[in-house]
TrEMBL record:
Keywords: Hydrolase, Metal-binding, Zinc. This is Exported protein. Its cofactor is Zn(2+). Pfam families: Lactamase_B (PF00753). SMART domains: Lactamase_B. GO terms for molecular function: hydrolase activity; metal ion binding. The keyword Zinc applies. It comes from the Bacteria. Belongs to the metallo-beta-lactamase superfamily. Residues 59-276 form the Metallo-beta-lactamase domain. InterPro entries: MBL_superfamily_lactonases (IPR051013), Metallo-B-lactamas (IPR001279), RibonucZ/Hydroxyglut_hydro (IPR036866).
């Protein structure tokens, strides 16, 4: 009996340890958000356990940080061409994905980033790419291939946003070693401040960006792997129809939800930042108040 208990405790300790994401260096960056648009809807349309009587604000953002005096973005949010781009959507998608844009679209343009990290290439994350032809655009190679493939869903990938020959694509050079539960990672500046992690599922090359903002806090930008932070805490799917329309592989997305849940349990310094969940990301200071 004692032996069984010992093995049980040991296996628990080992599995908990597997989800610890180690600190890789002494680097920090400050992160800001730039909201370029938003959309209010019943929470029940967002995730499986959401309520019809609760209003959920979906927000569309670029996130900005500086490293060694140079600016970088995570996603671009909406660019100046968003209205024209949106007109190319199928009619039903225009009804479902309608939004209000904000003046911050002009602020994003002023950022002049050295590099842009894309969580994925969907229309609401890549809209301003052609405004930054001098910047490196950093994506997973599979995401790039999928976004240009014949079979891409036209309501999610708008190729006119990223087919300019002047875009300076850079594919992530993954370090193929374990990082906690992840099979590979990329420590962008080799100082542990910004770590890219694979979160394949929502799209073929969806990534997360783990940013260390102080000795006590890390922010995990998880893209659209979830739309509501409670999905991570409660291990809950997106709303069924929304997931069918936007998730490339529901099974892979759910695997990542379980993974993020375990990461959340074992790393209390990490705050989760789903791209679109206003309530979950509003603690990140706004670049323009
Ligand atoms: Zn999105």
């Amino acid at each position: 009996m004692k032996l069984i208990l010992f093995i049980f405790i040991l296996s628990k300790a080992v599995s908990a340890q597997d989800y610890k994401l180690p600190i890789l260096g002494s680097g920090f960056v400050k992160v800001y958000r730039l909201e370029t648009g938003h959309n209010d809807s019943p929470e029940a349309l967002v995730y499986a356990r959401g309520k019809w009587g609760t209003t959920h604000r979906s927000t569309h953002n670029a996130f900005a940080f500086d490293h060694n005096g140079e600016r970088y973005l995570i996603d671009t949010g909406f660019g100046e061409g968003i209205e024209k781009q949106f007109q190319k959507m199928p009619f039903w998608a225009k009804l479902l994905f309608r939004y209000e844009q904000t003046e911050n679209i002009k602020e994003v343009q002023k950022q002049n980033p050295k590099g842009i990290f894309l969580t994925h290439l969907h229309w609401d994350h890549a809209s301003a790419l052609e405004e930054f032809l001098g910047s490196d655009v950093i994506v997973d190679k599979e995401e790039y291939k999928d976004a240009f493939s014949e079979g891409r869903p036209e309501h999610a990938f708008l190729s006119s946003q990223y087919d300019h020959s002047g875009i300076n694509w850079k594919f992530i050079k993954w370090t193929k070693k374990k990082y906690g539960p992840f099979k590979k990672y990329y420590d962008v500046f080799s100082d542990g401040s910004v770590i890219l992690l694979p979160l394949y599922g929502h799209t073929k090359g969806s990534i997360g960006v783990l940013v260390r903002v102080s000795s006590k806090e890390r922010i995990f930008f998880v893209g659209d792997s979830v739309w509501h932070a409670s999905q991570i805490y409660e291990k809950s799917h997106k709303m069924w129809l929304s997931s069918c329309l936007t998730d490339g592989s529901k099974e892979e997305v759910f695997e990542k939800i379980i993974l993020m849940h375990n990461v959340w349990r074992e790393n209390k310094d990490i705050k989760f930042a789903p791209s679109h969940h206003y309530e979950a990301i509003k603690f990140i200071p706004s670049l323009k108040l």
